[in-house]
Design brief:
Blueprint: E1 4-7, E2 11-12, E3 18-24, H1 26-29, E4 33-39, E5 46-51, E6 57-59, E7 67-72, E8 77-82, E9 91-98, E10 113-117
Length: 119
């Protein structure tokens, strides 16, 4: 069974920074690109960044130049470094493994980690 364990979320002021972590099963981590999603109440869960097994990263426009996704292959962990945080970045952040077309590899989700950006 695949598990995703996210951590690192917090309440932070606008302009602040956070680093999120997500640990998962090694067999999933080594085979697939890993992605971060953001779920905001009233909106669909949205993919915001993903990184290939070789470390090539892709971002949605709203987080480019502010967020950095990376992976530690030895620890089967994917990170999301978030800087210059804005109120619209508020949400529940979750990670998952995705295929090249962005579709989920498994229909399993962790608890997520809450990020709240507010003064």
């Amino acid at each position: 069974q695949v598990h995703f364990v996210e951590s690192g979320g917090a309440l932070v002021q606008p302009g602040g920074s956070l680093k999120l972590s997500c640990k998962t099963s090694r067999n999933i981590f080594t085979m697939y690109r890993m992605a971060w999603f953001r779920h905001t109440p009233g909106k669909e869960r949205a993919l915001i960044a993903h990184v290939t097994t070789r470390g090539i990263a892709t971002y949605v426009d709203s987080v480019k130049e502010r967020f950095t996704i990376s992976r530690d292959n030895a620890e089967s962990t994917v990170f999301l470094q978030m800087t210059d945080l804005r109120p619209e970045d508020t949400g529940l952040y979750l990670c998952n493994a995705v295929n090249s077309d962005g579709s989920l590899v498994v229909e399993t989700w962790g608890q997520g980690t809450q990020v709240t950006v507010s003064s």
